Backbone:
């Protein structure tokens, strides 16, 4: 799947991880984006301004440049991507330091047993 936000980076298939996009920056850094992470990312786009969304994308690339090998996962306890020597980050690892949040308004049932 083509992710428009990352189309300027080289996309290369990883046969060991066929469900995740693997991108390369021109300077050699590598990052994967799991589908669950991308779904969460799009949720931020739907709920925040274009400026905030661009800040998230920019921060992702900054983190990749700093750490060289990153996997953006839906859940770091159960990643889909199997690689060694990469750091695994969830969406909140990117958005929380930027103070961009999605308020979880869900709550338990009002009905007792």
Residues:
């Amino acid at each position: 799947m083509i992710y428009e936000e990352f189309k300027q980076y080289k996309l290369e298939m990883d046969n060991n991880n066929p469900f995740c996009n693997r991108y390369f920056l021109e300077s050699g850094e590598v990052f994967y984006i799991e589908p669950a992470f991308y779904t969460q990312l799009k949720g931020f786009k739907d709920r925040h301004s274009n400026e905030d969304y661009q800040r998230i994308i920019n921060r992702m690339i900054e983190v990749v440049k700093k750490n060289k090998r990153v996997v953006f996962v839906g859940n770091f306890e159960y990643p889909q991507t199997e690689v060694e020597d990469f750091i695994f980050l969830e969406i909140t690892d990117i958005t929380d330091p930027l103070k961009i949040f999605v308020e979880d308004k869900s709550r338990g049932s009002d009905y007792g047993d």
Q: What stands out?
A: The radius of gyration is 15 Å. The mean pLDDT is 93.
